[in-house]
């Protein structure tokens, strides 16, 4: 699942007319980098949620045939349902087994093919070194176990593998994902890994422009 329903308030005015996942980076919509990487990793089907200007996302991606991966959509009401609510709403489309979720507003060279297919607990999180804009981090990685702290925190990358059971008993409507993860951490049900490679949180126009410059600098000629 790719999370693509956010309003992108910090990206305004760019997101007033274009949803954040469709903002171009080095000439290609941000979300298409994820789709290509997931297809290379062997992912066989994809769910994309949407809310703000969601019709543009559906029109741009279609049924996924040009990417070689079937895409279905989970439409959300205006204002979206936050991360937890959005995933919970899409559960009927995600099946009964573990599923991968990727934030639509990151860019990374993480190899999804190397991600375990079945987490030992309810969730497996990919963490990254803290970026300048988030120095405090989110969670502590103790071996392969993730905890809420105390300790030297890392930042949640927006890449996670979840079991549907993580969302059992969740409320209807909008709710965040973090409280569910923290509750599962207390029970020792969250594993994790630290990814040291290329990863960018595209949270502001400035960061989008910087990533665009970096990717274009790699182009030959």
List keywords for this structure.
Spore Coat Polysaccharide Biosynthesis Protein SpsA, Chain A, globular, 221 residues, alpha/beta, two-stranded antiparallel sheet, 7-stranded mixed sheet, 5 helices, 25% strand
CATH architecture: Alpha-Beta Complex
| CATH C-level label | Alpha Beta
The CATH superfamily title? Spore Coat Polysaccharide Biosynthesis Protein SpsA, Chain A
Percent in strands: 15-25%
State the CATH topology.
Answer: Spore Coat Polysaccharide Biosynthesis Protein SpsA, Chain A
The chain-level structural class is alpha/beta
Quick one: how many beta strands? Answer: 13
Amino- and carboxy-terminal Cα gap: 36 Å
Coarse morphology: globular
User: How large is the radius of gyration?
Assistant: 17 Å
Report a brief summary of the structure.
The protein is built from five helices and 13 strands. By secondary structure, it is α/β, with parallel strands linked by helices.
Explained architecture:
The chain is of the alpha/beta class. The protein has a single domain (2-218), classed as Spore Coat Polysaccharide Biosynthesis Protein SpsA, Chain A, CATH 3.90.550.10. Helix content is 25%, strand content 25%. It contains 5 helices and 13 strands. The strands form 4 sheets. Strands 1, 6, 8, 9, 10, 11 and 12 form a 7-stranded mixed sheet that branches. It is globular and about 45 Å long.
């Amino acid at each position: 699942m790719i999370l693509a329903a956010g309003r992108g308030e910090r990206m305004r005015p760019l997101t007033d007319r274009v949803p954040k996942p469709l903002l171009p980076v080095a000439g290609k919509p941000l979300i298409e980098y994820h789709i290509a990487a997931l297809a290379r990793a062997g992912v066989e089907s994809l769910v994309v949620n949407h809310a703000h200007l969601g019709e543009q996302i559906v029109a741009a991606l279609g049924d996924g045939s040009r990417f070689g991966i079937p895409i279905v959509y989970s439409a959300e009401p205006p204002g979206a349902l936050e991360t937890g609510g959005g995933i919970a709403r899409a559960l009927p489309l995600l099946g009964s087994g573990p599923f991968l979720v990727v934030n639509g507003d990151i860019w990374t060279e993480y190899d999804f093919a190397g991600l375990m297919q079945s987490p030992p607990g309810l969730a497996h999180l990919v963490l990254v070194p803290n970026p300048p804009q988030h120095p405090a981090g989110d969670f502590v990685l103790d071996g392969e176990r993730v905890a809420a702290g105390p300790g030297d925190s890392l930042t949640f990358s927006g890449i996670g593998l979840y079991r549907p059971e993580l969302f059992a008993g969740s409320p209807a409507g909008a709710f965040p994902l973090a409280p569910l993860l923290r509750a599962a951490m207390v029970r020792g049900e969250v594993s994790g890994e630290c990814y040291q490679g290329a990863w960018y949180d595209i949270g502001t126009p400035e960061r989008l422009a910087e990533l665009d410059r970096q990717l274009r600098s790699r182009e030959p000629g």
